[in-house]
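Running this now, will post back.
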Amino acid sequence: MKIVFIIDQVYRHGGIERVLSIKANYLSKLKNFDIHIITTEQKNNESCYSFNDLIKFKDLNINYHRNKSYFHPKNLIKVPSHILKINAALKTINPNTVVVCSHSVDTYFLPFIRKKIPKIKEFHYSKFIEVDKRTNQTSFFKKLFFKFADFVESKYDKLVILNRDEAHYYKSNNIKIIPNPLTFYPENVSPLQNPKVISAGRIAPVKRFDTLIDIWELVYKKNQQWQLHIYGNGEPDYIEFLQSKIKEKKLSDHVFLKGATSDIQNKMLHSSLFVMTSDNECFPLVLLEAQACGLPIISFDCPNGPRNIIKADAGKLIMMQDVIGFSESILNMISNPDELNKYGSNARRHAQEFKVESIMELWIQLFKELNH
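Update: finished.
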């Protein structure tokens, strides 16, 4: 069975790219699967994640201007060439199924190209972010765009979303829920004995690391033995703001912005608790990874990801913006080793549900269904 995955690029570190590498590698090792990946702007860069040599790559060399809107004239002028090139590539490969991974220009025209080939669109972000825009939209252009987007989505054979809560945001009846697979499941787990709490993600306002620093200020007032380590890179201005906030609150010896890491597994295995303060999430892989390492989790109950991963016996969901409640949950967890270990053990057990073998079986069944 020939499967084509379409994505903008695979040279930048990101959740979509990492998940694609896991899925493509798994399928390519099965004797009846032939895997192709089409990119639009790889720019001769090396892939940032490891891909099996059996996987065939093709770059269309479209190279949209990423610092401009896709509706900017400099980008719109590239669309006809994009359509012609991807049509030619699909004609040559003649796949059984096409999977659109990233949310870029090709999302909006692929259902209308090589119509006989089944097409799947993956969504890796939460449509919760569109609710306010759709409800209170006064711009005629925006209203028209949302109607067009809904129409296009209805033309895909399947829309794959990451959790059941997301289904409420879609108007078509072609939804399939398939969670992301675990990126790793280490042989050993954290002993939960290091006085270190960890958080990780893109350093951006939506992740609310500034709120996490406020939370840690309250933790520090009652417990000076523990540290908070935050991993990730992102917006320079926001990073500078976080650094100044840490300094202002005199937490420089206890809260650390560690930058990006290519070995988050090792960092988790040397920590004892994972925390998340995001405004919204869809299906944060980092929570699965933390659970696989045996870490309990404390997170704001933001729409829509954490509540679909964290079970009551493996972590705590805190009401949004309840800084005091969040800090108290951290203090209760780190001061009670028995509870920490119990939650960590349960987290590890729940992570097994998302092992790659289980999740990929759902994808294989979907491919068979579309090609029966």
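The mean pLDDT is 94. More later if anyone needs it.
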